[in-house]
From TrEMBL:
InterPro entries: AraC-bd, Homeodomain-like_sf, HTH-like, HTH_AraC, HTH_AraC-typ_CS. Keywords: DNA-binding, Transcription, Transcription regulation. It comes from the Bacteria. It comes from Paenibacillus polygoni. Gene3D superfamilies: Homeodomain-like, Regulatory protein AraC. The lineage of its organism: Bacteria, Bacillati, Bacillota, Bacilli, Bacillales. Pfam families: AraC_binding, HTH_18. The keyword Transcription regulation applies. This is AraC family transcriptional regulator.
């Protein structure tokens, strides 16, 4: 069965902004509801805990959980909110610190209010539902970034991230190890150590291996010139590419191409 994204995987059911007033609400919802305090102060009660929230802080109402939230009478809060549901909801939230046990997070390092305004529940046209879902994904991605669930960031994930970046960008002649380190966003020597432990090779060696593997695929087809293959795997100098390729495979690019052409025709000598 093909994996196809459907709007119902993550859908906004309501959103809005509540100006400062004495609005109270107690009850149980059957959806997720994320609130972000724009200004003022309020309180959120869930279970046996009471949380005091101020500007830049957020609280989550989880489905089938009794909650009570209300403003500080002396400094009533103003907040924005978005209600959502769908099978993607729990997976995305599991990558944040927002949990049933701790449904609040402290002040964000960036202003998240504009992102809430981008998420709208109006419209039934497919493009409107897709756009709403995309905006909601974007909003939740900021919570994943600024309030990451610690167990999500494990050692192996840094290596996987580096490998994926290399595999997606090997064709760039300007790609450097520094670019890869910057993308993964951890200390250089620490990434080197993790990568070597996981793969048995350095980041640079892995990059070369990916380039040579792709070059072999292109040369095997015999449709492309050696110069085109070199450029396609990140080498602007054809002679240097040939040197690197021969060192890795024991064949020059032209020899490799000829060898595979003979093999394909069944004429390769024993």
């Amino acid at each position: 069965m093909n994996s196809v994204f459907l709007p119902e995987d993550l859908i906004c059911t309501d959103s809005g902004q509540k100006p400062p007033n004495q609005h109270h609400w107690r009850g149980v919802r059957d959806i997720f509801s994320l609130h972000y305090v724009v200004r003022g102060t309020g309180f959120y009660e869930v279970g046996h805990a009471t949380y005091k929230l101020t500007r830049g802080e957020s609280f989550m109402i989880f489905p089938n959980t009794e909650v009570y939230y209300y403003p500080d009478p002396q400094d009533p809060w103003e907040y924005v909110w978005v209600d959502f549901k769908g099978t993607e909801s729990q997976r995305l939230l599991s990558m944040t610190k927002l949990t049933h046990e701790k449904p609040v997070v402290t002040e964000s390092p960036v202003d998240l209010e504009p992102l809430f305004h981008q998420v709208e529940a109006t419209g039934m046209a497919p493009f409107q539902r897709e756009r709403s879902s995309a905006c909601l994904h974007l909003l939740l991605s900021y919570y994943m970034e600024h309030y990451p669930q610690e167990k999500v960031l494990q050692k192996n994930d840094y290596v996987v991230s580096a490998k994926e970046y290399i595999e997606n960008n090997y064709w760039k002649a300007t790609l450097t190890v520094s670019d890869i380190v910057k993308y993964v966003s951890i200390e250089r020597s620490y990434l080197f150590r993790l990568f070597k432990d996981a793969t048995g090779m350095s980041i640079l060696s892995y990059l070369k291996a990916i380039r040579i593997k792709r070059a072999c695929t292109l040369l095997h087809s015999s449709k492309f010139s050696i110069k085109a293959v070199a450029w396609s795997v990140g080498y602007q100098d054809q002679l240097y590419f040939s040197k690197v390729f021969k060192k890795a495979t024991s064949y020059s690019p032209s020899e490799y191409m000829k060898k595979n052409a003979l093999a394909s025709s069944g004429k390769e000598e024993a």
